[in-house]
Write a structure and sequence with these properties.
It catalyses: 8-oxo-dGTP + H2O = 8-oxo-dGMP + diphosphate + H(+). With about 140 residues, this protein is of the alpha+beta class. It has 2 helices and 8 strands. The structure holds 8-OXO-2'-deoxyguanosine-5'-triphosphate.
């Protein structure tokens, strides 16, 4: 069993079947990770399911409603260890309502294509996740 705190996040793509773009979000806080890029999401609150928390976080952070596709199952008991203190579960998702905006915690959003997926400074724990996602990407 992991004692790490669970974080849930979305790989927001333009198309679940044939993704060509991925949304990356730049952290504005806390200082230790400000300027680094991540998958939008956050911690699961007590009493919430993982997917309830993800819908809530995406609405709070980006102002969007989403449809969740498949979970990107990770190598660490099905999840992804991202830091000493956090383990992440991640779902592919598409926006069904709203236009993503950096409302809280982020100061910039960027849609990355197959050839630019690695161009931003992803948080350390996210790099191998981006690599795994890249395998399913099509050139735009
Ligand atoms: N949302 C999100 N968090 C990530 C990713 N990659 C990664 O290492 N993290 C880290 C950053 C944060 O320390 C933690 C997520 O918790 P949070 O977004 O509530 O940030 P926080 O600083 O309040 O967390 P904490 O250090 O107080 O426990 O996971 C990612 O792709 N998305």
């Amino acid at each position: 069993m992991s004692s790490r705190r669970l974080v849930v996040a979305a790989a927001l793509v333009d198309d679940l079947e044939r993704p060509t773009r991925l949304l990356a979000a730049r952290r504005s806080r806390p200082v230790r990770i400000a300027g680094r890029w991540e998958f939008p999401g956050g911690k699961v609150d007590p009493g919430e399911s993982a997917t309830e928390a993800l819908h809530r976080e995406l609405h709070e952070e980006l102002g969007v409603r989403v449809y969740l596709g498949d979970e990107l199952v990770g190598p660490d008991d099905g999840s992804w260890i991202i830091t000493d203190r956090h383990v992440m579960r991640l779902w592919r998702a598409v926006v069904v309502h709203g236009d993503p905006q950096p409302l809280v915690e982020h100061d910039e959003l960027r849609w990355l294509g197959a050839d630019t997926l690695h161009d931003v400074d992803w948080l350390d724990g996210d790099v191998r996740i981006v690599r795994a996602l890249a395998a399913s990407f099509s050139a735009s």
